Amino acid sequence: MKLLKHNSSEWKYELEQKEGMFLRALVAEFPLTAATAAKISRMGTDPKAPERERLLHESLAQHRQDLKRQASKLLAARLKPGKAGWRLSLNGNEREVLLQLLNDIRVESWHALGEPENLDTLPPPPSEADLRHYHLMQLAGYFEYKIVEG
Amino acid sequence: MPHVLEPITIPRPTTGNKTRSDDDLAPTFFVICWNDPVNLMVYVTHVFMKVFGWNRQKAEKHMLEVHEKGKSVLVREGAEKAEFYVHQLQGYKLQATMEPAE
């Protein structure tokens, strides 16, 4: 995947055949988990933290629903066959949606793996679920990097 | 006939020549981003630029602070704005919290 060109409102990428297939498969995995863990505070000195945290959970649940709704249309509309693979054209909002969705998959996969410090190794022997989460985490990171850095 | 006292007006505290408003007295919060091994450095920089409108240099400075020191205080804001930023950052799956500044 490489960035072909961009301006302030549009980014055009070229993907190889396999990359297009992997990206579609990856986006279809979202959301990996029904709910997401989120804390509003770590220090516990805000008496209103429980109420704020409840609002945060509601906000994030709504946000993930919005991402899911947008994601299902996004690739169908914006990932098109190219000369040797695929062409992906994204406006600014679509780029952010795709990045957030991919990173949600990456972080939730990392949680499922037990939040390892070292992302390059798996606990021996890895289960099938470990292998799946490991590959999802690495693939999501690959596409995030390419989308941001071109 | 009871003696009626003149009402007393207590002056509000001032800062220099400026009268302090309720906003000045409201509690403020630090929005903090915490380190984790899973969020990519380029991604974190990108998110800071998008959420706060920072230039790359400032965003990278805070990203490196998160990476090297374990956390970075991103902004100090009133409760509502701090909550907004935490919601935004967590929407991107960064580990961000708001902590009372005093």
Helix/strand layout:
The complex is a heterodimer of chains A (150) and B (102).
Chain A: E1 2-6, E2 10-16, H1 17-28, H2 49-78, E3 79-81, E4 85-91, H3 92-112, H4 128-149
Antiparallel strand pairs in A: 1-2, 2-4, 3-4
Chain B: E1 14-15, E2 18-19, H1 22-25, E3 28-34, H2 41-52, H3 56-69, E4 71-78, H4 79-91, E5 95-100
Antiparallel strand pairs in B: 1-2, 3-4, 3-5
Helix pairs in contact in B: 2-3
* Low-confidence regions of chain A: none
Major beta sheet of chain B, specifics? Answer: 3 strands, antiparallel
Question: Per DSSP, what share of the residues of chain A sits in E-state strands of 2 or more residues?
Answer: 5-15%
Shape of chain A: globular
Number of helices of chain A: 4
* Distance between the first and last residues' Cα of chain B: 49 Å
Largest interface: A-B, 34 and 24 residues
Tell me the number of helical segments of chain B per DSSP (H or I, 4 or more residues long): 4
Poorly predicted parts of chain B: 10-16
Percent of residues in helices of chain A comes to 55-70%
* Secondary structure category of chain B: alpha+beta
Arithmetic mean of pLDDT of chain B: 86
What number is the mean pLDDT of chain A? 94
